[in-house]
Specification:
- The chain contains eight helices and no strands.
- By secondary structure, it is mostly helical.
- It has one domain.
């Protein structure tokens, strides 16, 4: 995996990491859960909720790698088709992000450490949206010339899961202290994310 990581053009990898970080900051269901858990149980519980969510993301990365690999094996043009479908899905996400208000829905988070990890994992793992996002986002940064696409998806997905886990844990840790400021900043992050989604979609279409 280290050889594969070093084979990615630095600018290409930097774009992926930057895009992933912006997308990780978007307030979605996982962020809401970690935030609610932090408010209810304190910084430690909020952090553990984010850790549980990260474990769920790894499951989606594995399924995405297997699914894309199987599709390419069955039909060589599948990667191109996935990228076009992914572009449409990213545009849809951009439209939803632009319209979002940034308000934090009221809800009950986890109250204990193990419960936070378990509920964070189940919440992410049983949500089909992360899988759709993985298929839309990760393949566009792969290059068949660098090696098997599934290996690239696992590597990139691992990076995305790692950064996303840190961000979600950060939301959980800070939530109990800066809830109102966080709510105001989420509205701005939604607009930034909308532009990012649109840019990624155009990148897919123009490549």
């Amino acid at each position: 995996m280290l050889h594969l990581l070093l084979s990615f053009p630095p600018g290409h990898l930097a774009t992926f990491i930057a895009g992933g970080l912006v997308l990780n900051f978007v307030p979605g269901a996982d962020v809401i859960f970690a935030t609610a858990s932090g408010i209810r149980g304190g910084p430690r519980v909020g952090a553990l909720a984010g850790l549980g969510v990260g474990c769920g993301v790894l499951m989606h990365v594995t399924l995405a790698a297997l699914g894309v690999s199987a599709a390419i094996a069955a039909w060589p043009g599948a990667l191109s088709a996935i990228r076009w479908v992914g572009a449409g899905y990213l545009l849809f996400l951009g439209w939803k992000s632009w319209r979002a208000t940034g308000e934090l829905p009221q809800g009950r988070g986890a109250g204990g450490g193990w419960q936070a990890v378990r509920r964070g994992f189940v919440s992410n793992a049983t949500n089909p949206k992360p899988m759709l996002f993985m298929i839309a986002f990760l393949p566009q940064f792969t290059d068949p010339h660098l090696g098997p696409v599934w290996e690239q998806i696992v590597l990139l997905g691992g990076i995305f899961a790692f950064t996303g886990t840190l961000v979600t844990m950060g939301y959980g840790i800070l939530a109990g202290y800066v809830r109102h400021a966080l709510s105001r900043k989420m509205a701005a992050l939604n607009r930034v994310a909308a532009v990012m989604f649109g840019g990624l979609a155009l990148r897919l279409i123009l490549d």
